[in-house]
TrEMBL record:
<dbReference type="InterPro" id="IPR043594">
    <property type="entry name" value="HMGL"/>
</dbReference>
<dbReference type="GO" id="GO:0006552">
    <property type="term" value="P:L-leucine catabolic process"/>
</dbReference>
<dbReference type="GO" id="GO:0046872">
    <property type="term" value="F:metal ion binding"/>
</dbReference>
<feature type="domain" description="Pyruvate carboxyltransferase">
    <location>
        <begin position="1"/>
        <end position="63"/>
    </location>
</feature>
<dbReference type="InterPro" id="IPR013785">
    <property type="entry name" value="Aldolase_TIM"/>
</dbReference>
<dbReference type="InterPro" id="IPR000891">
    <property type="entry name" value="PYR_CT"/>
</dbReference>
<comment type="pathway">
    <text>Metabolic intermediate metabolism; (S)-3-hydroxy-3-methylglutaryl-CoA degradation; acetoacetate from (S)-3-hydroxy-3-methylglutaryl-CoA: step 1/1.</text>
</comment>
<keyword id="KW-0456">Lyase</keyword>
<keyword id="KW-0479">Metal-binding</keyword>
<dbReference type="GO" id="GO:0004419">
    <property type="term" value="F:hydroxymethylglutaryl-CoA lyase activity"/>
</dbReference>
<dbReference type="GO" id="GO:0005829">
    <property type="term" value="C:cytosol"/>
</dbReference>
<dbReference type="Pfam" id="PF00682">
    <property type="entry name" value="HMGL-like"/>
</dbReference>
<dbReference type="GO" id="GO:0046951">
    <property type="term" value="P:ketone body biosynthetic process"/>
</dbReference>
<protein>
    <recommendedName>
        <fullName>hydroxymethylglutaryl-CoA lyase</fullName>
        <ecNumber>4.1.3.4</ecNumber>
    </recommendedName>
</protein>
<comment type="similarity">
    <text>Belongs to the HMG-CoA lyase family.</text>
</comment>
<dbReference type="GO" id="GO:0005783">
    <property type="term" value="C:endoplasmic reticulum"/>
</dbReference>
Length: 63
């Protein structure tokens, strides 16, 4: 989906953990997969802190 949106001209793809269940490990796996198709500068993340993982997920995304 991200590749198609980027190809259509979307300049930023936002990846959201809308219910806050993501972990640093799942964030890393998702970003590694998406970055095979989309340049990192075109990505954003939106994390919720339902289970106290938002800051750890953001740190993982920034690395």
């Amino acid at each position: 989906v991200s590749k198609r949106l980027y190809g259509m001209g979307c300049y930023e793809i936002s990846l959201g953990d809308t219910i806050g269940v993501g972990t640093p490990g799942s964030m890393k796996m998702m970003l590694e997969s998406v970055m095979k198709e989309i340049p990192p500068g075109a990505l954003a993340v939106h994390c919720h802190d339902t289970y106290g993982q938002a800051l750890a997920n953001i740190l993982t995304a920034l690395q």
